[in-house]
Amino acid sequence: AQSVTQPDIHITVSEGASLELRCNYSYGATPYLFWYVQSPGQGLQLLLKYFSGDTLVQGIKGFEAEFKRSQSSFNLRKPSVHWSDAAEYFCAVAVNTGGFKTIFGAGTRLFVKA
Amino acid sequence: DAGVIQSPRHEVTEMGQEVTLRCKPISGHNSLFWYRQTMMRGLELLIYFNNNVPIDDSGMPEDRFSAKMPNASFSTLKIQPSEPRDSAVYFCASSPQGLGETQYFGPGTRLLVL
């Protein structure tokens, strides 16, 4: 069965420090992978996505993610975190069931301390 | 583009009442998704439509929930009768077919059933 695992429920980093959020997926075919961000009281917004090609993808707000097929991972990174990055982050995989549907991980809440 | 529009943004009702949530997807998008988000269960896919046809409703919790998409620009999610455990934020999302299924989320409807 398809699934997405985000092992960290929450992470706290200092402003200016680097960030890595982990994501592992389970899907037999070539995955379409996504990272979404949700600010408090808001809907989800796409940060970046991977379909094919270069395994290092760049997104908005200075985020990047690297697809590693051998590890079934799609970790999100940012070199220097800003206080405004505090939010919840969701990793997701799109699976084809006669139309695509997206399976979301449980989310990782990011706290940023001054 | 106005993005995905949901109404109402907030709904407070009493147990046993009927609740109808509305969604207008982005024009030209072929897929529409209804999600429920709670602290306990995270983000759950309830149902999704492709070209106005329900493809997968396995996430609909029980017969009290129903969803329709009478045309490409409108969808409803109805709960009848509502129960306190239905309290959650309900998101609608749409996506353009054939573009890797990036989903565009609405702002959500925050439902409280007393």
Instruction: Give me the Rg of chain A, rounded.
Output: 14 Å
CA-atom Rg of chain B in angstroms: 13 Å
Count the beta strands of chain A: 12
Specify the overall morphology of chain B.
Answer: globular
Using the alpha-carbon principal axes, give the shape of chain A: globular
Which sheet architecture does the biggest sheet of chain A show?
A: 6 strands, mixed
Structure description:
The complex is a heterodimer of chains A (114) and B (114). In chain A, strand 8 (64-68) and strand 9 (73-78) form a beta hairpin. Chain A is built from no helices and twelve strands. Chain A has strands at residues 3-5, 10-14, 19-21, 24-26, 32-38, 44-50, 56-58, 64-68, 73-78, 87-96, 100-104, 108-113. Helix content of chain A is 0%, strand content 55%. Chain A has 114 residues and is mostly beta strands. In chain A, the strands form three sheets. In chain A, strands 2, 5, 6, 10, 11 and 12 form a six-stranded mixed beta sheet that branches. In chain A, strands 3-9-8-7 form a four-stranded antiparallel beta sheet, with no helix packed on it. In chain A, strands 1-4 form a two-stranded antiparallel ribbon. The model of chain B has no long low-confidence stretch (mean pLDDT 91). The N and C termini of chain B lie far apart (36 Å). Chain B has 114 residues and is mainly β. The radius of gyration of chain B is 13 Å and the shape is globular. In chain B, strands 2, 4, 5, 6, 9, 10 and 11 form a seven-stranded mixed beta sheet that branches. The chains are: A mainly beta (114), B mainly beta (114). The A-B interface holds A 32, 34, 36, 42-46, 49, 51, 90, 94, 97-104, 106-107 and B 4, 31, 33, 42-43, 45, 48, 50, 55-56, 91, 93, 95, 97, 100-108.
Provide a compact summary of the structure.
With 114 residues, chain A is mostly beta strands.
Defining traits:
heterodimer, A: mainly beta, four-stranded antiparallel β-sheet, globular, B: 114 residues, mainly beta
Helices and strands, with pairings:
The complex is a heterodimer of chains A (114) and B (114).
Chain A: E1 3-5, E2 10-14, E3 19-21, E4 24-26, E5 32-38, E6 44-50, E7 56-58, E8 64-68, E9 73-78, E10 87-96, E11 100-104, E12 108-113
Parallel strand pairs in A: 2-12
Antiparallel strand pairs in A: 1-4, 3-9, 5-6, 5-10, 7-8, 8-9, 10-11, 10-12
Chain B: E1 5-7, E2 10-13, E3 19-24, E4 31-38, E5 42-50, E6 53-56, E7 65-71, E8 74-79, E9 88-95, E10 104-105, E11 109-113
Parallel strand pairs in B: 2-11
Antiparallel strand pairs in B: 1-3, 3-8, 4-5, 4-9, 5-6, 7-8, 9-10, 9-11
